[in-house]
Amino acid sequence: MSNSKLCWPTPNGRPGLVPTLSLLACILLLAISASAVELDFGRIVTAIPRMLAFAGNLLVLPDWEYLPILAKNILQTIEMTFLATSIALVISLPLGVLAAKNTSPHPAVFHATRNLLSLMRALPELVWALVFVSAVGLGPLPGIMALSFVTVGFMGKFFAESIEVVDQRQVEGVVAQGASWLQLRTFAHFPQAFPDFVGTVMYVLDHNLRAAAILGLVGAGGIGYDLVMAMRMFDYNRLLPIALSIYIVVTLLDRASDHFRMRMI
Amino acid sequence: MAEEIIQRPALPKKPFNPTSVWLSGWLALIWLIIVDLELSFETLLYGVQDILEYFSRYSRPNFDDLSRYVELLGQTLATALWGSTLAIVVAVLLAPFAARNLSPNAVTYRIARELLNFMRAMPDLLLALIFVAALGLGPLPGALALGVHTAGFLGKFFAESLERVDNGIYEAVTASGASRVQLVMYAGWPSIQREALGYMLYIFDRNVRMAAVLGLVGAGGIGLALHDTLRMFNYDQSAALIVVILVTILTIDYLSTWLRGKLN
Amino acid sequence: MAKIIIKDIVKRYANGFEALKGVSAEIAAGSFTVILGPSGAGKSTLLRTINGLETQTAGTIQIGEHIVTPHNLRQVRSQVGMVFQHFNLVDRLSVMTNVLTGRLSHRSWLGSLLYLFRRTDLDLAHDALIRVGLTDKAWNRADKLSGGQQQRVGIARALAQQPRVILADEPVASLDPVASEEIMGLLREICTRDGITVVVNLHQVELARRFADRIIGLNEGLVVYDGPTGGLDRITLGKIYSRNGDLVDEQLETMLAYA
Ligand SMILES: Nc1ncnc2c1ncn2[C@@H]1O[C@H](COP(=O)(O)OP(=O)(O)O)[C@@H](O)[C@H]1O
Ligand SMILES: [Mg+2]
Q1: What is the pTM of this model?
Q2: Cross-chain residue pair C115–A178, CB shorter than 8 Å
Q3: Cβ pairs B/C, distance under 8 A
Q4: Nearest-CA distance A170 → chain C (Å)
Q5: Which of C90, B224, C10, B227 is nearest to A190 (CA)?
Q6: Cβ(C39) – ligand 1 distance below 6 Å
Q7: For residue C48, which ligand has an atom nearest its CA?
Q8: How far apart are the CA of C161 and the centre of ligand 2, in A?
Q9: Counting CB atoms within 10 angstroms of each CB, which of A2, A27, B43, B228 has the fewest?
């Protein structure tokens, strides 16, 4: 055996069984699913000129008269995000307490709440928005309902997880004072979980802003409607301002939330 | 007695507690928003009644078309899988450049970061709209859109994990004369292996949910079917579709929770 | 102020380990008692059973006129202050709020939801802070204090309860010698001046000798000595600190040499 032969740092010089099998399984899965996504590199290559042409089309002067409406709709998107997150926050706090192993009054309540929460976050906002639009009509209201609903599912779960990792010793310190069930939650669990809660709220705000930006697609308010219309009507002089303003707002919140999270730690 | 009270060492001045200010500011803002959006509670109250009646229409799911739904579902899952794979490939390539301690210089760091930011900021549905316009209808533009958008997330997560790795590990590998690529391969990725797997699972999870609605813009999958049945007020079939989507997403949710538990 | 009667306490943990194997003792009202024993003897278990943080497998605890049951725990705890080895303060709350948690058993659920207290509660907390000499730190966050200061907040929290009994589980085990001295002196002073019954777990013989009226020696879940401090001689200490006939604490060898 020549010593310059390449080998892996394993006992027999060959790749391990588990990594090899996992890799093969992944490749197999991708190969099987390739036909389902109608994968076709030729199609992608031929689309490149069209993409470039599209990008070229975007470079036109904006539709100045539309800009005030754009501002209004962006503001509406932000308002929907904020309101939906606030509503969800108020509902998620008690649900989070019920869904945390160490603060839930009973294991049955714990399991029931956990399942309820995963049911609420299972379907994407857009599906709920579709349903709520059919129920209460077009406008921001169904959008806010859909956002709040799904957000409770996420926020309640995150809150519960933060409550579960609080320091038990600090809790015991308050237990020994004869605190009641509720007092324990407000004076021992809540202060400890608070920084995590802030992190969660920032994360969820971020997520909801992105979601709110596309809810308009199904008529549930916000900038999404203008976006789809501009796309469908080839209003290139609106498309770029819309995309740009979404980009700016999302990026600003993203930075703000990073900054805030750093400070809380 | 009175004397004793006077001699009590007084408490220092209580520092200002901003909680009440934050709280009232928050409430005021909510009020302003409610007024500005012209949300009326009456609508909501009537709405609640209507909604209960409305939801009752979904109580008879019709599974006659189940085989078609399953096929669409397969397409949705495939879209999510390919989208996630694309995201992973792009993120793995970009993340080392977007990690402050591994990036060759400040310029590549900024470029990589901004690129990831940009990908993250573009909503995937918007990307899907664009790709559908360029590539035509079908799941392929959906997978591309998911890939581009979530590569932004995954790349950021990876980069932040790579930055958090104990500097001593990097120094030890550098000290043995490793090149930058070797540093990334032997100190970077192995150190964040578990975290990275967790993030990938999370991204796949998210992409399945998203793939389920991409159909709305013509990017394949089960979403389009739901859109159509809802638009035709076909409640029985809509209910069946919702059940199918729900069961799939819950299954994947449980699977990934289980997997994550095993990883830790 | 209140006498504690411990009767035939047996404690078996969920894993089957029997930490207390039938412990009985009577602790006089207003006395300063030290429970002495090597680590693992069951001291913490015994102390935590007294205010119901652990539920005994058999036996009864009586504090004053009340027998401790799972149903009157809140009432019992409102009369029993507890001081912990690791202070167990809520880190992110201010010193003042931590002391005020000693008043929680007197507050309604609605008030507590909004973090509201009465002026009288504030006065009691203020007095407690004066007693431990920490008025100037009242609005600092609890985790920003030194260990000795945190333990004094722990004592103030217990004092704010206006308790009849204070239980202290190794209150000085995480402190340096100077702070240990301060804390033990403070507990002793509280016992003497307010007539509060104080029970302290310790593993340091030296401190026990200096501060206690009475010592209960615990070893492997059994009382091996119960009597005045003066009765702590070589043989007794040997009994408290032996396991299977061997001394368990290396420090004790030197300590016994001086005894
Ligand atoms: N929750 C528990 N479950 C099982 N065994 C325990 C538990 N807590 C304590 N023990 C055991 O009980 C014995 C007595 O513990 P403890 O009362 O803490 O002793 P001390 O405070 O005297 O050091 C030890 O052997 C310990 O391992
Ligand atoms: Mg102990």
Answers
A1: 0.86
A2: no
A3: 20
A4: 4
A5: C90
A6: yes
A7: 1
A8: 24
A9: A2
Q: List the pLDDT tens digit at each of the 259 positions of chain C.
A: 689 999 999 999 999 999 999 999 999 999 999 999 998 999 999 999 999 999 999 999 999 999 999 999 988 999 999 999 999 999 999 999 999 999 999 988 888 888 889 999 999 999 999 999 999 999 999 999 999 999 999 999 999 999 999 999 999 999 999 999 999 999 999 999 999 999 999 988 999 999 999 999 999 999 999 999 988 888 888 888 887 666 665 555 555 555 4
CB-based contact B9 C139, cutoff 8 Å? no
For residues A207 and A77, membership in a common domain is answered with yes
Distance from C-alpha of C207 to C-alpha of A1, rounded to nearest angstrom: 73
Q: How far is CA A129 from the centre of its chain?
A: 15
Is residue B188 in a domain? yes
pLDDT of residue B1 exceeding 50:
no
A115 shares its domain with A25? no
| C-alpha to C-alpha distances, A94 to A89, A103, B199, nearest whole angstrom | 9, 10, 28
Domain ranges of chain C: 4-87+164-258
Ligand 1 site, residue C219, Cβ cutoff 6 A: no
Residue B28 placed within a domain: no
Q: Where are the beta strands (DSSP E) in C113-245?
A: 165-169, 197-202, 214-219, 222-228, 242-243
Q: What range defines the domain where residue B166 resides?
A: 66-263
Indicate yes or no: CB of A173 within 8 angstroms of CB of C113. Answer: no
Domain closes at, from A43, A58, A73: A58
C16 lines ligand 1 (CB under 6 A): no
d(CA A96, CA A83) in angstroms, rounded, equals: 19
Confirm if B158 and B192 have CB atoms less than 8 A apart: yes
B8 touches chain C (CB under 8 A): yes
Ligand 1, atom 11: nearest CA belongs to which residue?
C19
* φ, ψ for residue B39, nearest 5 deg: -80, 130
Answer yes or no: is B55 within a domain. Answer: no
ipTM of the complex: 0.84
Chains in contact with C via at least 3 Cβ–Cβ pairs below 8 Å: A, B
Q: Is the dihedral of CA C19, C24, C28, C31 positive or negative?
A: negative
Domain boundaries C4-87+164-258, CATH class: alpha beta
Buried b or exposed e, range A143-172, using 16+ CB within 10 angstroms = bbbbbbbbbbbbbbbbbbbbbbebeeebbb
Cα separation, B7 vs B25, in Å, equals 40
